[in-house]
Amino acid sequence: DTEVTQTPKHLVMGMTNKKSLKCEQHMGHRAMYWYKQKAKKPPELMFVYSYEKLSINESVPSRFSPECPNSSLLNLHLHALQPEDSALYLCASSQAVYIYEQYFGPGTRLTVT
Amino acid sequence: AQTVTQSQPEMSVQEAETVTLSCTYDTSENNYYLFWYKQPPSRQMILVIRQEAYKQQNATENRFSVNFQKAAKSFSLKISDSQLGDTAMYFCALGNAGNNRKLIWGLGTSLAVNP
Questions:
Q1: Among the four residues A22, A30, A68, A74, which has the most C-beta atoms within 10 Å?
Q2: Do A45 and B103 touch (CB under 8 A)?
Q3: How far apart are CA B103 and CA B92, in angstroms?
Q4: Cis peptide before A8, with omega less than 30 degrees from 0?
Q5: Segment B30-85, tens digit of pLDDT
Q6: CA distance A10 to chain B (A)
Q7: Do residues A89 and A110 touch, judged by C-beta distance below 8 A?
Q8: Under an 8 A CB cutoff, do A42 and B105 touch?
Q9: What is the mean pLDDT of chain B?
């Protein structure tokens, strides 16, 4: 029932690894979001892309690097993560940043060892 | 500052009964939107219901309805005929042009539907 897909579903990485999370939506939305979510907590906004341009960076450490190759795709590149970065990473999209109704993907469960 | 408060961290209800989850908010904006999102255990976050502040009529989606009290800044969610599949975290969220158009989230209510 999701129109926002995320891969991989699960990811285990060491602190020296480089990995990427991928998000795709085919709803024609022009705003895409990355959130970090800890168990039983609300999502915390990390980045917002509007029309493929980064519009919000919530002071996220540089070990997280977002990329928006086109209007349907959003990547999150990970490098030198810390164990406290272990969380569920959610991608979401909306028609535009001023349309507040967001649709979420299923998330990537990230474990940093 | 804009805030969303969910005062019930955990709730439980018997199957087939009705339960109401509370949400209060604070904003100085006149035009805003309110949402209830549902996140079942280990499953996807989905939008349950939305309410535009300028609409007086309360939103309804099947067994889910809201009681929107604009003056009191209250936005409660009523779930009728609760089903086991309603077991989830429920988050209330506020969206408007303030705060750089970011959604403001409540801390969530964990609802357990018991057989």
A1: A74
A2: yes
A3: 10
A4: yes
A5: 899 999 999 999 889 999 999 999 998 999 999 999 999 999 999 999 999 999 99
A6: 12
A7: yes
A8: yes
A9: 95
Q: Is the pLDDT of residue A2 over 60?
A: no
- Look at chain A and count its residues: 113
Taking an 8 Å cut-off on Cβ atoms, the answer to whether B47 and A103 are in contact is: yes
Buried b (16+ CB within 10 A) or exposed e, A26-59: eeebbbbbbbbbeeeebbebbbbbbeeeeebeee
Do A36 and A52 contact (CB within 8 A), yes or no?
Answer: no
- Whether the CB-CB separation of A104 and B45 falls below 8 Å is answered with yes
CB A107 within 8 A of CB A37: yes
Interval A16-52: pLDDT, tens: 999 999 999 999 999 999 999 999 999 999 999 999 9
Q: Do B110 and A40 touch (CB under 8 A)?
A: yes
Q: Give CA–CA dist A98/B43, Å, rounded.
A: 27
User: Phi/psi at A41 (nearest 5 deg)?
Assistant: -120, 160
Q: Do B44 and A106 touch (CB under 8 A)?
A: yes
Q: B103 and A106: CB-CB below 8 Å?
A: no
A80 CB within 8 Å of a chain B CB: no
Residue A11's CB is within 10 A of a number of other CB atoms, namely 18
Which residues from A are below 8 Å from B101, CB to CB?
97-98, 100
Residues 48 through 67 of chain A touching chain B, CB cutoff 8 Å: 48, 56
